[in-house]
Write a structure and sequence with these properties.
Blueprint lengths: L30 H4 L5 H10 L1 H13 L1 E2 L8 E2 L3 H11 L4 E6 L4 H13 L3 E6 L29 H11 L3 E5 L5 H8 L4 E5 L10 H5 L11
Parallel strand pairs: 3-4, 3-5, 5-6
Antiparallel strand pairs: 1-2
Length: about 220
Amino acid sequence: MKELPDCARCKVPVDKRICLHPDGIGPKNCPTLNFATEYKTEFQQALETSKEFAKLASLQEAACYQNRFNDKSLHATKPRLIETVEFAKRIGAKRLGVAFCVGLTREAEIVANFLASKGFEICSVMCKAGSVPKETLGLTDNDKLRPGTHEPMCHPIAQAKIFNAVKTDLNILLGLCVGHDSLFFKFSEAPVTVLAAKDRTTGHNPLAAVYALNSYFRWLKD
């Protein structure tokens, strides 16, 4: 078995990496060196099935910047909300699915109204749709957030299946929990993008803990 790729901890200077420069170099566990050649045909075959989608995604990436021909003044200009609208239009999406957490109900209404104002048909489904009790999963009363109450499970499978039934063209995740989002990805037939990732302690800004891991969030290391 090849050594596991670990690009996140690559020690090769950025301006010398083979993934970015044709004449670059890479460490012994470099995926560009170890996998790209052996799996080139497989990668290419997979790309062919989604080539147009990938092309539009790359066009959207570039469209988020101004002064692209001047490195000194290159800067991003669009929030992800606008990126999502523009990309949905690029792929010809008409009906959008918004899968949201009950904790972001207010935000979901704002997003749904905004997307509708841009000409999209909106189908939004909250995580508790179906009202399936957590006992169905084999959980006990002590496993609930509020013991002694009827506590419906989060049901991303139901959210995805409903979107499949109404044939959404693109689904947007708004604050689904870790794990629940994974299930949604697994069962959604339409492409999925994430507008917001759930993070209860940072106002849904997961990178806040990353940026402050050596200061305000250093207690996480313990």
